[in-house]
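FW: tagging you since you asked about this chain on Friday. Here's the raw sequence from the shared folder, copied in full. Didn't touch anything.
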Amino acid sequence: MHERAFCSRVGECVRQEKSKRLCSPMHTFSIVARDPKTGEIGVAVQSHWFSVGVSVPWAEAGVGAVATQSFVDPSYGPKGLDLMRSGKSAPESLKELIAADSGEAVRQVAMVDAEGRVGVHTGKRCIECAGHQTGDGYSVQANLMLNDRVPAAMAEAFEEAQGDLAERMMMALEAAQEVGGDIRGKQSAAMIVVKAKSSGKPWVDRVVDLRVEDHPEPLKELRRLLKLARAYNHMNAGDAAMEKNDVARAVDEYSAAMKLAGDNLEIAFWSAFTMAVKGKVDEAVPIFRKVFAKDKNWVEVLKRLPRAGLIPDNDLGRALLLRILKMSGVS
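HL: got it, structure written out here
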């Protein structure tokens, strides 16, 4: 259905700033939260709607997080962050946006700021079962659920969960699904976690940034991706340790990455490569052997690295390459 016709039909979406508000029926359950120990801020969501991560979750390091859902107006995300960045609390920011929205009756929005203050709104025309529950530094909210147990289940799971913020939010989402979840079923999910303070580089400040666009089991897929993201974080930490010549720390980080990633040859290959160019060839070769045995294309990848400048294109570099290949039992 055309967006204008749909908005007219629900009777709540209006023009704003000479452009149409988006009002996709993104009914869902979500959580916004701040970790009091680390100061990390996050938002996580699941919905029976394609690509929920495009519109519902918003977060910025040192500022806050927003979940905007139900008949969603995505502008609550950037506008809410702008207001919190200007110094307003999450409750103040949300109150200002709600006051300016003639479609607020069909909105469900939650915000948490960098100090853990929470604001949440469930419009009176959000489709049942709809509701929210807040706690210390977090809010959980849901609409169009199978039953009215979802917010309480999410809150309990989040408060009782152990681990970092991403893990605790993941547990909250899983608890929602366990008690019934979205009455329509499930399709997509997303999670964003940002650091406590902004570095001025948003791409550095994102601790977790995952989206499951379309999947029969979006939360299971989100958990799998979260595990893989942790593996790559360990790999990056290993690279950082190598840059400081802390080889022991690097090896520990690479080992943790490979343990989490399982059969991920990408992580294994680059971990081994980094160790080899830092003089730890003996430690790297067993990893190379496993990679090459599973996929010989990685032998060709290794051979192409000197011309890319990743292995010195000189006698020493060629000697290193030949040593790796020989010890790995390939040519």
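FW: The chain has two domains: 3-215, 231-327.
HL: agreed, and DSSP finds twelve helices and 13 strands in the chain.
FW: great, closing this out.
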